C-alpha cells in the first residue's frame, strides 16, 4: 500500500525475545528462570511428558508467565511398560566462557534409562543418560551511541558546514564510559556536511540542513538516531529555502544504533516526579522509552508529554472496526509483542496481538486515520492485528504533566 507509506515514521526499539545465546545487561533483569510443567497424554506426547520453559522473570514476581518464556523444550515419556523410564532435566550454572560469554545456565535433558553406564530408574540424570544439552546465557551491557555536531573547519568545508562525530560511550582511549559525553578517544567515525558554494551570479548557495529522528525497529532494534541531511533546494517536489528538510531533499541517511542497554539508562519523569520509564533513545522532538516493571512496554513520547498520532488502519469504513498497526507494508517484518503505538482517534495505544517477536501478516482494510483525518480506501497490506490499551494498562500515569526531564 505505497499510497499510505510514511517515510521516517518513528518505531519502537526493543526486542524482548530470549534465545539460547541472547543478550541482557549487567544492570538488567535477573538471571534466567525455568518453569517445568507435566504434560498429560495427548497430541504433543502420546504417553505424557515434561514441558521445560526457559526465560527471564521480567516483572519480578518470582514466576514465569507465558509471555516471559522465550524457549520451550518438550521431553516425552516412552510407552507404558514394565521397563519404562522417566524423562529428567538438570539445570546447572554455566561459568563465563566459550558457551556463554557472561555466564548463564546449562540445561541437560534425557531419559533415566541407564545409558552410558548409568543406573536406570534411580531418578538421577547421569552423564551417559544426557540426550540433549542447551545453554541460556546472560547478556553483556551494550554502550549508547552518541553523536555531536560542531562547526566544520574551513579546510574541510570552505563554504561552511558541520562536522558530525559518531561513537560509542565506551571509554575508549582513556575516556569515561557511560558519562553521556562523546569524548575525543571515543569517536569512531567523522563526517562533514558542507554548505554549497556560491553560484557564479554571486547569490548564496543552498543551505545544508540536518535532521535527527528515531529510526525504525528494523534499522535499529535497540534504538538510536537516524541522521538525514541535504540541501534546502526543493528537490523531489519540496519547497526551496524554507528551512525545512523535506523527504525529496534528503541526500544522505545514516542510522546510528544503540546496543542492548539491559534495562539500564536514565529515567524519564514528569514535573510531578512520576516515572514514565527508562530512556532508550531520544531526538530533538521525542523520546523512546520502556515503561517501568512489571509493564515493560516500548513507546515514543514527545518532550511536551504528548503522544504523536501514528498511522492507524481500520478493518471497516469510517475508521471503525479493528485497529491495525501499519509501518511501511514490508512483508515478513517482526516487532516485539510489548510495543505500544498511539492511536489518536481512539485516545489509546495499539499493542500487537501475540507474544515474543511478532511478524506482520496480510490484513484487509477499508479506511485509515492520519493526522486527524479519516480516509476511505479498500485493500490489503502487511500489518499487525492489535488490541487497544489505556496508558495506565501499559505502565504510564493517567496524567502526564510537562515539562519532562531525565534523572
From TrEMBL:
<feature type="compositionally biased region" description="Polar residues">
    <location>
        <begin position="198"/>
        <end position="214"/>
    </location>
</feature>
<protein>
    <recommendedName>
        <fullName>DUF7151 domain-containing protein</fullName>
    </recommendedName>
</protein>
<dbReference type="InterPro" id="IPR055575">
    <property type="entry name" value="DUF7151"/>
</dbReference>
<feature type="domain" description="DUF7151">
    <location>
        <begin position="148"/>
        <end position="194"/>
    </location>
</feature>
<dbReference type="InterPro" id="IPR018247">
    <property type="entry name" value="EF_Hand_1_Ca_BS"/>
</dbReference>
<feature type="domain" description="DUF7151">
    <location>
        <begin position="36"/>
        <end position="76"/>
    </location>
</feature>
<dbReference type="Pfam" id="PF23657">
    <property type="entry name" value="DUF7151"/>
</dbReference>
<feature type="region of interest" description="Disordered">
    <location>
        <begin position="193"/>
        <end position="214"/>
    </location>
</feature>
<feature type="domain" description="DUF7151">
    <location>
        <begin position="86"/>
        <end position="137"/>
    </location>
</feature>
